[in-house]
Amino acid sequence: MLAVVAALGAAAAVNSASDRTKVLAVARDVPAGQSLTAADATVAEVSTDSALSPLQASDKASVLGKRTAVDLRKGGLLLASQLAAGTGLGDTRQQVGVLVKRGQAPAGTLSAGDKVLAVTTPAQGDNTSTKDDAATPSSINAVVVSLSRPDATGSVVVNLAVATTDGPALATRASQGRIALVREPRSN
């Protein structure tokens, strides 16, 4: 009798272990704000667990091209909450690349999704010791879409999403090297 109960228990354990489902997993590290490609996602088999809610393998085609809302690490399961729809810019936003030199943005604290002010700095040779010092500098509200790795000088390219009315002005100032970034508090 004991041998029969043990055999039934072992059979149940084997059956429950084989109750697996195909889901999407992260094939390589993907920084926040980047569009998901076919090379970024892979299929994995995991035991069915109501506590886990990874995307099903059959959803792979529908998630390609979506922008990551958080950094994804190789080997993790892919969740719907980790992805943002479309490009992350929406239909009413433009993207402008701004070269930010060391000292023109908070060091190491910017990440995709951060709200920033793109502040216009004085042109080289402008006299800033006048009564205009008390005036508020011109600024444009923006959201960080992505950042490049720092180059040898510590400069990074920060891609910013801005309103369509602000894109040309920001691009002009950025081309002149006259932009500094101020990160807004993350609780806003």
Q: Termini separation (Å)?
A: 66 Å
Mean pLDDT: 82
Percent of residues in helices:
10-25%
* DSSP, total strands: 9
| Low-confidence parts | none
In DSSP terms (H or I, runs of 4 or more residues), the helix count works out at 3
Mass-distribution shape: elongated
Largest sheet, described in full?
5 strands, antiparallel
**Major sheet strand order:** 5-8-7-6-9
Strand content: 25-35%
Element string (H = helix, E = strand):
HEEHEEEEEEHE
Strand-helix topology:
Layout: H1 2-17, E1 20-26, E2 41-47, H2 60-63, E3 67-68, E4 83-84, E5 93-100, E6 115-120, E7 139-147, E8 156-163, H3 167-175, E9 179-183
Q: Which features characterize this protein?
A:
29% strand, 3 helices, 188 residues, five-stranded antiparallel β-sheet, two-stranded antiparallel ribbon, alpha+beta, elongated
